[in-house]
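Example 9 (inverse folding). The structure is encoded as follows.
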């Protein structure tokens, strides 16, 4: 069941309904912090699913509370479909970290999971991307928000649509559901 966003007429805030599975309280979608997860090299884990589950469990130790999460989605590797397929998902989080501190925390989690940054788009044990931090947009001292390529990736927008379909992209001003329908990268992405 996917609940759509609601606007609280008293204050004009767009919220995700607390009756949404996995969301314990209303979430102001204009303040949503969204992180995408991906894996196509299981590393020391028995599977990419196990690695991603362990990564989500590790968020709390870095001061990141997961408010809601999507299913895991599979897709061919991009840009080289000859690489192992990816398993991806999205989480809606709450944190007191500012965007740069959050990126540092996500980097520490990737490091613990053996992420190597040798060749661009090489297979990876864990890829954590900050998709959005509220409505912030632009270049924040080298951190580009929202993620500059997320809107065109079905393996990001599809999972995001599961948890907050009415989330609006801060720059494009289109919903996650609309972007999932028009995404050009990872069109084969599907729930597993």
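The amino acid assigned to each position is listed next.
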């Amino acid at each position: 069941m996917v609940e759509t966003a609601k606007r609280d007429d008293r204050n004009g805030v767009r919220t995700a309904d607390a009756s949404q599975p996995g969301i314990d309280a209303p979430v102001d979608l204009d303040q949503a912090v969204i992180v995408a997860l991906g894996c196509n090299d299981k590393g020391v884990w028995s599977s990419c699913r196990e690695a991603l589950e362990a990564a989500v469990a590790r968020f709390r130790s870095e001061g990141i509370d997961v408010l809601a999460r999507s299913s895991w989605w599979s897709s061919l590797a991009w840009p080289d479909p000859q690489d192992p397929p990816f398993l991806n998902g999205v989480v809606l989080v709450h944190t007191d970290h500012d965007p740069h501190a959050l990126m540092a925390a996500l980097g520490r989690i990737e490091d613990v999971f053996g992420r190597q940054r040798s060749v661009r788009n090489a297979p990876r044990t864990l890829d954590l991307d900050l998709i959005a931090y509220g409505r912030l947009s632009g270049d924040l001292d080298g951190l580009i928000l929202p993620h500059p390529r997320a809107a065109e990736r079905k393996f990001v927008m599809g999972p995001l649509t599961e948890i907050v379909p009415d989330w609006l992209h801060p720059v494009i001003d289109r919903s996650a559901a609309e972007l999932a329908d028009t995404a050009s990268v990872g069109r084969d992405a599907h729930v597993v």
